[in-house]
C-alpha cells in the first residue's frame, strides 16, 4: 500500500498501533474514492463510445454519405418506450436556443447527478412542457433535461445504500420516471433549427396512420449539440407519445 511522506512520518513519530490503524483506514478510504472516481470515468466513456457506434450505424443508412440540413436517418415508426428513471432538471428558459443553453444546462445536470451519488447510464433526454412545436416558435421554453440513472451503480457511499440515495434525490424532486408508453419516433440528423420539418412530417405520419398524440414531445440526444463542433452532425431521436 502506498503512503505519502507525511503519513510515513506520522507512523514513525507516533509508533502507535491505534494511530497506524487510523492512518491505514484513512488511506484505504482514499483508495476507494479514487477507484469510484475512475470507475465513473470508465462508465461514462463506455456510454459515449456506445452512442458513437450507434451514430456510425445510423449514418451508414445514407448510401451517398451526404449531409442534409433536414434528414431523417430512420423511417417513422411506432415504438414502445421502456420505462426508466431519469435524474432531471426543469427550467423556464428565456430566449431559448438549444446551442446556446445546452452546454451549461448539461454541465449543471451532470454535476447535480453526481453530487446525489448517481452514475448516468445513457443519453440525455429533453422534454418540452409546451404545446408541440412551440420550442421552435416561441422565445421562451419550459424545458426539462434528464439523464438516465444506472441504479445498479449509483456510487452511494458505503454507509448509504442505492435505495437510500434514490430516495434522497427523489425527495428533492430531481428523479422521475420516463417511458412506459407507445410513441411515434424518428431519428433526425442535422441542424436543430431545421428539425421542425421532421416534427411536421412525423405529425403527418401519425395522422395518416390513425393515431392520436397523447403527450408532450421529448428528444433523445444520440449525438448532442455539445458533442459536435458541426451542428449538421447532431443526431436526435424525436419521441411523441401516441394512442
What this model shows, in words?
This protein has helices at residues 5-14, 17-59, 98-115, 134-137, 162-171, 196-208, and strands at residues 71-72, 77-81, 84-93, 120-128, 141-149, 175-178, 181-189, 218-223, 235-241. The chain is α+β, with helices and mostly antiparallel strands. The longest helix has 43 residues, at 17-59. Mean pLDDT is 77; it is low at 63-70, 153-160 and 168-173.
Concise description?
With 243 residues, the chain is of the alpha+beta class. The protein is 40% helix and 25% strand. The radius of gyration is 23 Å and the shape is elongated.
Content of β-strand: 25-35%
Structural class: alpha+beta
Mean pLDDT: 77
State the major sheet: 9 strands, antiparallel
Low-confidence stretches: 63-70, 153-160, 168-173
> Quick one: overall form?
elongated
Question: With helices defined by DSSP (H or I, 4 residues minimum), what is the helix count?
Answer: 6
Helix content range of the residues, please?
Answer: 40-55%
Report how far the terminal alpha carbons are from each other.
60 Å
Q: State the total count of DSSP E strands.
A: 9
Order of helices and strands: HHEEEHEHEHEEHEE
Radius of gyration: 23 Å
Amino acid at each position: 500500500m502506498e503512503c505519502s511522506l507525511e503519513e510515513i512520518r506520522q507512523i514513525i513519530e507516533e509508533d502507535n498501533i491505534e494511530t497506524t490503524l487510523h492512518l491505514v483506514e484513512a488511506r484505504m478510504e482514499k483508495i476507494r474514492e479514487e477507484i469510484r472516481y475512475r470507475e465513473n470515468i470508465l462508465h461514462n466513456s463506455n456510454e459515449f463510445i456506445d452512442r458513437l457506434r450507434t451514430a456510425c450505424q445510423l449514418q451508414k443508412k445514407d448510401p451517398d454519405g451526404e449531409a442534409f440540413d433536414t434528414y431523417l436517418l430512420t423511417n417513422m415508426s411506432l415504438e414502445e418506450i421502456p420505462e426508466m428513471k431519469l435524474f432531471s432538471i426543469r427550467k423556464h428558459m428565456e430566449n431559448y436556443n438549444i446551442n446556446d443553453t445546452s452546454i451549461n444546462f448539461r454541465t449543471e445536470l451532470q454535476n447535480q447527478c453526481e453530487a446525489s451519488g448517481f452514475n448516468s447510464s445513457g443519453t440525455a433526454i429533453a422534454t418540452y412542457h409546451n404545446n408541440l412545436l412551440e420550442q421552435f416558435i416561441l422565445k421562451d421554453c419550459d424545458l426539462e433535461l434528464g439523464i438516465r440513472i444506472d441504479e445498479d451503480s449509483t456510487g452511494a457511499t458505503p454507509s448509504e445504500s442505492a435505495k437510500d440515495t434514490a430516495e434522497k434525490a427523489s425527495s428533492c424532486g430531481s428523479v422521475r420516471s420516463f417511458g412506459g408508453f407507445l410513441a411515434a419516433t424518428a431519428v433526425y440528423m442535422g441542424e436543430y433549427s431545421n428539425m421542425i420539418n421532421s416534427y411536421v412530417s412525423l405529425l403527418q405520419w401519425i395522422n395518416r396512420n390513425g393515431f392520436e398524440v397523447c403527450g408532450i414531445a421529448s428528444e433523445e440526444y444520440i449525438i448532442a449539440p455539445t458533442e459536435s463542433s458541426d451542428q449538421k452532425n447532431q443526431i436526435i431521436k424525436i419521441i411523441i407519445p401516441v394512442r
